[in-house]
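Memo subject: From amino acid sequence to discrete backbone structure tokens
Action wanted: Derive the backbone structure tokens from the amino acid sequence.
How to read it: Take the token row as a discrete description of the fold.
Attached in line: The record itself begins immediately under this heading.
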Amino acid sequence: MKIRGLITAMVTPMRDGKVDELATKRLVNHLIEKGIHGLFILGTNGEFFSLSDNEKVNFVQIVVDEVAGRVPVFAGAGGIATSQVIDLSNKFANLGVDAVSVITPYLIKLSQSELIEHYTVIANKIKVPMILYNIPQNTGINIELTTFEQLIKHPNIIGIKDSSGDIKQLENFIKINDRNDFSVLVGSDSKMLQAFELGADGAVSATSNFLTNTDLDIYKSFKEGDRNKARKLQDSIEPFRKILKYASIPSVLKYSMSFKGIDVGKPRNPIQDVEPQYFQEINKILMSYLRKEEI
């Protein structure tokens, strides 16, 4: 499998603190109808950290069934314990995901040799391809270049989502990649165009839940060779990215979706709703996008 294009890091719709099946189906269909190239579920913006394994399995089942093969589905199966990741990944495999994403372990500070062992054991024992997920500012562990050089040799590891924001590191990942079936994906929305210009295969984008048209057009304009348009579009997402920082992830993103008329509910504790003091500025920014073309 070669992963390409603009992939949405999908939020997890909830109602009354539980996964909302109907809202999930509506969101899946909305994104696919817009033309998104894949769905990345149970990531950071998908609140994987607050869901039980049973809830994750049920959510994956809902999404895979609703997608029905129209686009690839990549599901986050990462955790701290190697055995736990293997178990959850194989459950996802049985449900029909195209690949699992495995974030670096968090809370504990692993050495790079331990990280290589962790990923290698998982890749050897799961029944589905694996995507590495690097977000060191959240986990405290970075996938170093020497580690990447080792892991890319494993045939069951088919990609990396790099959300480090370190564009030089991303460029080195791209240079090291000598496989036709391995994808380097940028996970920092502010770096999408820059990453495409360096040779990244695609982007896993949280802003594309709301700015679906714009983010898709960044990729499309780049592929068509219209760099000026792509740059303008890339710059245009910055006001939205700014307001996302007014609360913990994914509070503002979920609020924005509901503002747009796509009710995905509220985040689960400990994430809180957006504080009222920010409503005026957030609403102003959101309305500016809706007036343009994000309707």
